[in-house]
Amino acid sequence: MNTRQVVVIPGDDAAPEAMAPVVSLIGSLVPEIDWQYPLVGEAAIEATGHALPDDTKTLIDSSETTLFGSTSGKSGAALFYLRWGKQTYANVRPTRWFPGYKSSLADPEGVDFIIVRENLEDLYLGIEGDVPELAELGLKSRTSRRPLAEFDGRYALKVITDEGSRRVITKAFELARTRRGKLTATSKYNMLSYTDGLFRDVAIDVARDFPDVEFEMFIVDDFANRLCKRPQDFDVVVMPNLYGDILSDAAAGLVGGLGMAASGCYGDDYAYFESAHGTAPDIAGQHVINPTATLLSACMMLDYMGMNEVSTRIHGAIAEVYAEGRVLTPDQGGNASTTDLCDAILARCQTR
Known about the structure:
By secondary structure, the protein is an alpha/beta fold. The chain folds into 3 domains: 1-92 and 259-352, Isopropylmalate Dehydrogenase (3-Layer(aba) Sandwich), CATH 3.40.718.10; 103-121 and 159-255, Rossmann fold (3-Layer(aba) Sandwich); 123-157, no CATH class. Helices cover 39% and strands 16% of the residues. It contains 11 helices and 12 strands. The strands form 2 sheets. It has a 10-stranded mixed beta sheet, with helices on both faces. A two-stranded antiparallel ribbon has the order 6-7. α5 packs across α6, α7 (220-229) runs parallel beside α8 and α9 (292-304) runs antiparallel to α10. 45% of the residues are buried. The model has no long low-confidence stretch (mean pLDDT 95).
């Protein structure tokens, strides 16, 4: 049997409680996966003095992909390496309603779209400081007409590039081509005409290369309104980093919450997969965290690895368990443990 090496980083607080049964479930269905658990975070600092040792980077580099748990601590060093070090520029976040999901909508039937978030630039470059540092540039506010020297505050640098926009928008169009053939782009181009305006212009340009894909463009606040009113209208949506981070979490709320929010981050030659929710420190140790987001992220990983048949089986099993409604975690109105839900899904997989 040829093994397929996958790095697992369990995460912090309650995240490992979701990761362990998910890995066990996947391992039962795909025994050829060789799960590797490198030193990361506090344990790595204690053993080596570094949150992300060179051996861990080497293991990530040599593995096919990484399944990552949510982090709120020192294991975040691995996240930075997986994102910026591996240049995983497209954060793909599906939103799909299954019967049984505890949706906030009166009628969630047919909600099935994907937000593709640019993952590396925008305000997430992390360049911040005190406004007086910019005074010597002689900049003047376009809106208040005051020189920056008169401001006593802080700034954050927003950077949108042609290259960064073009590659993630192209990825989104390629994804739309495999689905229902519709691509929506959004940014705040009416107010930020130079930066978000560039994102809009690149989207319009890339659209010319995909005449078979229906294309539309909305200002981001207009898009947010449409998302709340009629999410069924969307297929694939692409947007800059900050908007994608916020609106993909809002989208998860439409179908049942962050416990269902899967995520995959793709570059040209590497991808890693993580649930979009946080570490849930308030329920750590209770073993009731919803593992669905982690499991759906693992399904995205299986698709990336070419194991589409197994991914399809798991999706079908998830749909059956939720539709039946007997084994659900507390966030979905049930009283099952994390492991109970995974066991129920595995049992359905084995009969499919």
